[in-house]
Every structure is written in structure tokens, then in C-alpha cells.
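fwd from M.: "can u put these together and see what the complex looks like"

so here's what she sent:
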Amino acid sequence: MGKNHNVAEQDVAPGASRRQWPLQKGFDRFYGFIGGETNQWYPNFVEDNRFIDQPYFPEDGYHLSKDLADQAIKMIQDQKASHPSKPWFMWFCPGAKHAPHHVPQEYIDKYKGKFDDGYEAYREWVFKRMIEKGILPKETALTPINPLPDEVANPTDFVRPWDSLNTDEKKLFSRMAEVHAGFSEYTDAQVGRIIEYLEESGQLDNTVVLYAADNGASGEGSPNGSVNENKFFNGYPDSLSENMKYLDVLGSPEKYNHYPTGWAVAFSTPFKMFKRYSEYSGGTCDPLVISWPKGIKVCREVRHQYHHSTDIVPTILDICGLEMPKIYKGVEQYPLAGVSMRYTFDAKPDAPTQKKRQYYAMLGTRGIWEDGWRAAALHAPLTSKGNFDKDQWELYNVKTDRAESKDLAKEHPEKLQALIKVWFEEAEKNTVLPLYDCSALEQVLIERPTDEPLRERYIYYPETVAIPEGVAVNTRGRSYKILANVEITDSNCSGVIFAHGSRFGGHAFFIKDKKLYYVYNFLGIKPEQQFVSPALNPGKYTLGMEFIREKAGQNKESLGTTKLFVNDKVVAEGPMRAQVGMFTLSGEGLCVGYDSGDAVSQEYKSLGKFKGGEIQGVGVTIEKTQYLDI
Ligand SMILES: [Ca+2]
């Protein structure tokens, strides 16, 4: 149920192999999205082995988390109806609390004013509560908000101190935290509905629930917060004056918002940094709650044993009395990476952990935990700096210093060297090497291996399922042409001929009020760039557009000229800017004859179906080479 981010990009496609899809990985059912994130109001859906459209729209009360909870209950009921004695396993993973932060307004309103004191004040408040409630040891110390030295830090992850913000910024940043808090509560409420169903149906007592977050707090909102997280992945900065205009629609379908880095640090209290920084607990530590009324005697107790997400599968196997097979269908299996946490159910809160070591690595950052010590390589992700052999390492005794506040590298140099050696051993064993770090933009521009050779010409046909961006024609950083053969049969012909993306970035070709439109929506920044023809009479047409990329803008975006054609005649012409990064991180496919999910242009509403004529097909031609540096 929900997020599955385990499929190679080229295989997230209607014509692709399903070998990595959830059903082929052992699940009997799947309902959710394949990719890193999706729009919570307009998700990109897969059911079992095929792409489907969302069942209804936000104007009728749709939200992804609610739909997933509905479907989760139904899926269990369906099984109970025919196979009531069979046990079930469900992996329930909403899009929450990953970006975009989307939530019904009434949940946002509940948190009005709660974050007005700013992120440093929030850290102090929540830190004190964590100590009082015994979640952190008493001797834990709070860490600084910008812990990395300047020569290491990535400026896009900087935290602007609250007292350096102006009144508007404080207002905007507070609202972004209110939205996120509402999003959290809404998620809990939906999961709560599944728990209620289990209780009512008498299943809760013997159901093991492991409740953890998909994401720790993340810094993709940049120091100023974002109204469109996709700007981060396009290397394009947010502007405060523009963002302020959207204060009252944050969280709604109109925005794709993400709070600023200050809240990412605050929501990782007491640790340093946030998601992507695998050297620190701020990037790796999440809460985990385990409930099993029949099997766990104690209730509402905290456990301090160090564990990792790789320990969840061994725990489930242990509870079920199953062993991981060494050979499956004749194939020798990788040994399980984790150890069971079952012993913690009856252990004393401070009893020693049965975990021995755990390595960490992400986007060029590195860390290692062993026997209560943690070594951290000072390296910021997404910097393109490389030179890993020059990384300085820190050493922490996390048995007593949970927050990693006091570097002991100088006091215990031999311990540090031993841990670095352990990191390399684990990296070797777990195919972590070679190390690689690149910028966010470089990351999305990487040409990935594909079974389908790169083409110069792509042909699309009406009414096929939306083609996911990862396999659709890539117009990023290039000149391109779109041509459509269309017959207009009715003088009121209207609708989408071609569309790719959403209101947060994308382009579309459509007919409205008898006129042909080409709209390029650059990262959702208004106004839309529109090229419009004179009115068209019924008849057969070749409708087209051409974008010639002339140079790169300040943020590497494409700048050039667009011409709109009706047959061989130029009917509109003008300057245009185009994205070099993706329209969305995952999803929002390319469609002919309609616009799936969220609409690219505000000139029509999804699905914007084409009517009053016939589309024969749409061809897109691209220059093979991306030229970023002209
Ligand atoms: Ca769309």
C-alpha cells in the first residue's frame, strides 16, 4: 500500500518489464505509487501490475493518505471474506510525511500560531520534553543549528537564524511548519482508522504493528522554504516576494510546498543536520513504535537499544517463527543485514543492544556505528566536491552523547582509525563503493541505462496511459519540436492534444475557444508562457511548435525562442524559458488527448479531454545532445 521506491526508472513505464514491481517481489496485491514521492492530491497510481487513474479528485474530498487507508481496510476485508484463517502482512506507506506537504485546511488551522517563536525556540521546548519523557538520556546536549564548518557545508542547507528573519519571512516559515504539523496529524488520523478497523474486527490483539516514518525531516525546502519543491531539483531558487503571495494556499492542491531547512533541523532535535546527512543521527534517526498487545507485556515504555531499519525484517521473521532461507529457487540469498529486535520487548530499557555495527552512506556522506561509538565523515551531500580521501572524521561516544555533540577524535585517534577501517569493510561488503557526490541538478540530469535506445523522434498516440517522465521524451536542456496531426470536425472542438507535467512545471498543447495554445509552465512561476493561434475552422491540420534553445540563464535554465505553427505557417512567436530539470521528481506522465492528474495549464481543468475532433498522433523531435553551457 502506497509508496514503492524500488523500481529502476526505466521500468516505471506501461511497456516495461514488471520484474522489479511489488507483485513480482512477493506481494499478492499492490495499490500505490512507484517512485520517490507523488502529489498527495493528484497521485500517480499503480494497481497490481498496471497504471490506473485516481478514483476521484480533490474537489470531491480526495487525499492520497485517506484513499490508502480506505483501500488498506478493503484489502484486508477482501482477504478475510475468502481466506479468513490466512495471516496477512501489509506494508503501509503513505506519501506522508514526504514532500509535497499537502493536507486539508482544517488540520492546518489546528496549529495556527504554534510555531511563531521560531525553530530555535521549538528545539529548546521539544528537547526539554524529550528529556522529561525519558526519550533521551538526561546528559544529552543540544547541538548547534549550523554544525558544519564553512568549507564543508552546502550553502543550500544553511539554516537562517530566526532572529535574522524579517516579519514576512517569519510569517511564511511559521505557516509552513503549521502545514507540516497538520500533515502529520492527518496521517496519524488515517492510520488510526486502520487500527480502529482492526480493533472492531477483533484482529488488533494479535497484530504486530511497527510504526515508523518514511522520512526524517528533510532539507529540500532550502533556507527559505519552497512553494514548489521541484525548484530544488531544477537548481532554481525560491523568491520570498513570490512565495508570500501563497501564504493562504500552502498545503492545498495549488502548491507543492516544503518547509525551510530551519524546521528540518528543529524536527531532528536534538541531532545535527537532517535527511541526506548520513554521518549524523539527524540524517538517520527516526522514531519507531512497536505494538503487539498479545505478545508484548509492557506498554508505553521506551527502549534505548540501538537498532536500524534492517532489523525490522528479522524481527518479523522471529515473531512468526520463520527463518530466512539461505537458498531460494536455487539461488543463494544475500544474508539478512539485520538482527531481531524481539528481545527488546522484554528487556530493561537500558539493557545492551544485540546489534554490533551499522554503516551509513548517502550521496557521498558516510558514517559508522559500532558498539556505542559513531564515526562521522565531514562531507555535505549534493556538493560535487569529491575528494573523499580528504574528508575529516569525527568521533562520538553515543552511549552517553546521544546527540553527537562532543567530538572525541583527538582523545581517541586509534578508536577513530579502527572505525574508519570498519566503514570500508562494510562498504565493500554492501556494494557502497565507489563513492560519488554530485549536485541535485547533475543527479537528475544523469543519463540512466535503458533497454530502449535514445531516439530523436518519439511518436505518441491518443488515450494511452500517461507515460512516466523517466521514459518519456526528454526535452530538458534541448531544442525540440512537437507536431500533431489533428482533424477538427466540430467548430466547438476543444481539449488537450498533448500534455506533460502539472501546474508545478510542464508543457501542453491544446485547443480552447477555437484557438491553438502552446503553454510552457516554467516551475509553476506565473504567468504561464502562452503562444496562441488565431481561431481555427474545422478541417485537417498539422499543428506544431518549435523551441530553439539559444543560451543558458542564470540558473542554467534554457532560454530561447518558440514558434507556434498551423500547417507550415508561423502564427505566434516569442521568447521562452524552459526547465533543465524534471517537471516532477516522479510521475505526472506525458499524455495525448487528455492531461492526467494535475493539469499543466490553468486554462483548462484535468483531465481536459479532447473532443470535437480526432488526433492521429503526436510526434516530438529532440536534439540528441543536451547543451548546458552555451
Ligand atoms: Ca498532468
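replying to her w this: The domain at 457-622 is CATH 2.60.120.200 (Jelly Rolls).
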